[in-house]
Each structure stands twice: as C-alpha cells, then as structure tokens.
Amino acid sequence: MDPLRIGLYAMPAFFVLMAVEFLSYHFDKDTDKGGDSARPRAGISWRDTGTNLSIYALGFILRPLDKFIAVPMVAIAAAVTPLHLSASHWWVWVMAIVLADLAYYLQHRMSHRIRMFWAAHNVHHSSQYFNLSTATRLSWLIPGSFLSTIGYAGLALIGIPAWLVFLSQAIVLLYQFPIHTERIERLPRAIEYVFNTPSHHRVHHGANNPYLDKNYAGIFILWDRMFGTFVAEDEPVRYGLTKNIDTHNPIKVNYHEFVAMVGDVSCARTWRGRLGYLFGPPGWRENSDTATTVEHDVQNLMAPAAASWGKRSA
Description:
mainly alpha, 2 domains, 13 helices, 60% helix, globular, disordered C terminus
C-alpha cells in the first residue's frame, strides 16, 4: 500500500487539521514570528507549505514504480511462507501493528545512517519549518520505499496476512501526521514514555545537537529508549538540514542530495571512497581534511570501519 495513496484517502481530514493549525497560529498573538534566533523559522510559511503539498501531489506521477515493489514482495512472502496466522485473533492485530512499527523504526534509522537511502529521505527533513504540512513532504525517489518493503515482507513471512501487513503499515504512517506540529506541548508523562508525540518528533526533525539523528519511532518511542536513540526535547529545535538548501523548487528539493551523492562517487579516488559515499552515513568524506565539524563527528564514529575498508581497497 503506497504511503502517498494512503494519504490521498485521508486528505480531507489532513486539510481540516491543517486549517485548524493555521487558525491557531493566526489567533495566537504570542506566536513567535521569527525573532528568536534559536528557532528562526517557527510557525507556517505559505511558500513552504505550497512546496510540501506540490511535492506530495507530484509524487503520484513521479513514483510509478512504488506499487510494483511493495505489493509483489509482500504478496510473494505471504504465499511462500508455511506460517499462517488468523486475523480473527485480536493478538494477531496487536502483533502486526507492533512489528510493523519496529520494521518502520529499523527502516527509518537506516534511512538516516546510509547515504543512498538518505538521498531520498532528506526531502522530508529539508523544510526549515515544522507543521502539519511537513508530513506531506515525501520523496519521489524509490530507495527508501524498497528498504521499508523488505521489513514489511518479513511480517508476511511469519504468517501475518498480506492485507493486514499493509493495513498495519498504513496505521503506522497515518499516526505520524498529527505529531508534525509545534502547537502541542508535552503530553502526560505516561503517554510521553510509551508513544511518539509531537515533542519527541520535533526532536527528530532537529538539525542541531543533541537532536541530530534521534527519535526514529513511528508509534512507539519505546524502540528509541530500547536501542539508545532517544533524546527528550529540552533546548529549542532548529529544523532543516545541517546544510540547508534554501529552495522551494520541488525538483531541487527532491534531487539535490542524489546529484551530490553521484558527484561524490564519480570524484572518489578509491573503491573505499565510492562505497563510502553510497553506504556510509551522510557527511562521510573520503578525505577527512576537507570535512566540516559535523562531518568530522561522523568520521570519528566511522573510523574503525573506514580503516578496514582502506586495507581492502589498497
């Protein structure tokens, strides 16, 4: 089930919620209009919102292969497995949603830590605003969709009916729309501990430390607590990328990182460099002397693996 098509069915509710969010900003006289340098682009920009919605709409035309990847892989997995669970049992539904959320967490984390997948996923993070329209800012590129499909095919292999796999995926994705907002502060402690909330997801969209690459959860923030990627919202969040692109052109928004990645691969001097630019984390550089501060942090994390790669490519 294509995430874009899922959203299409829910668009009436999306527009109602976006209108409510806009009105809440309009009538809130205390809303930050941009004077706080720590959060320079809080609120809503009509140009940015227009970019988000145009990217979403054009995605229906420019992602024709999506449906040909997800549906066959999950269907084949469901057909070949000897395991078959009945959806008539309530616990099968619970298991399907929980495991779909775990699959989403793993796919989402890899989309941040492997540049080939980040080339697609960075589109969602490139807005310097954070509001409900940001949830519709979805990449046209295929790699991330292929990665997520592998995880959902795993659910079919353990016996969950294919239709329930797709429904669980839809639930995980739809849950995340209303948490793209600054209008909701922290929720009661028990909810904040178990579930992904607007506060937790604001952290995830932060480009400033200590928020960078944290809080990957879809529904259950427990995954981040378990796997050491959780950070609570404390200081103001700066939204966007570590190097913002400052464009509202949907084509540039979608392909700027892909073009940069291809350029880095073509200029690499060794196989270590070529593989690093594809499968290393964003910011990885073949020559650490030219890396930025953020990239140096990545280099330090990758040092052991990079040394091993260097020996193999020598």
